[in-house]
Design a protein that fits this description.
HotDog_dom_sf; alpha+beta; 6 strands; 143 residues; globular; Thiol Ester Dehydrase, Chain A; 4-hydroxybenzoyl-CoA_TE; fatty acyl-CoA hydrolase activity
């Protein structure tokens, strides 16, 4: 399984009154990594894959330890744990080489913004996502 690696800068404004990254800011970090994964790495030059829109149906976040401000970026690793006909689940770790700050997952639904309806995952998108599918995830590939 391949993992997508995103280097996320920390901003001074991400801190809360207790001197660490605010819990709500981690949702933005996950979004940055997910957008980098889905749009910048979408298959094919000029491919419409993932460009038609998507919506978040669910987030789950486990805060493992506080992350304090520093000048070095934090690493976000993400991979796919489930591919359905009209949704996918992405898992993340926000981490440094020696520790994990957050473990999370997001259910993403491809969405036709013009028609305002969910849509199915295309064959091209599925092929791209399969490269990042966790090898240990039993039953992660739905028809």
């Amino acid at each position: 399984m391949t993992r997508h690696i995103y280097s996320c800068p920390l901003r001074w404004s991400d801190m809360d009154a207790f001197g660490h990254v605010n819990n709500a800011v981690f949702v933005r970090y996950l979004e940055e990594a997910r957008i980098d994964f889905m749009f910048r790495l979408a298959p094919g030059d000029g491919s419409p894959s993932f460009s038609g829109g998507s919506v978040v149906a669910r987030h789950e976040i486990d805060y493992v330890r506080p992350l304090v401000h520093r000048h070095e970026p934090v690493t976000i690793e993400l991979w796919v744990t489930k591919i359905g006909a009209a949704s996918l689940t992405i898992a993340y770790e926000v981490k440094d080489p020696d520790q994990v700050y957050v473990r999370a997952s997001t259910v993403v639904v491809p969405f036709n913004l013009e028609a305002q309806v969910p849509r199915r995952i295309s064959a091209e998108e599925k092929s791209f996502l399969l490269e990042y599918l966790d090898d240990d995830t039993s039953g992660a590939l739905a028809a």
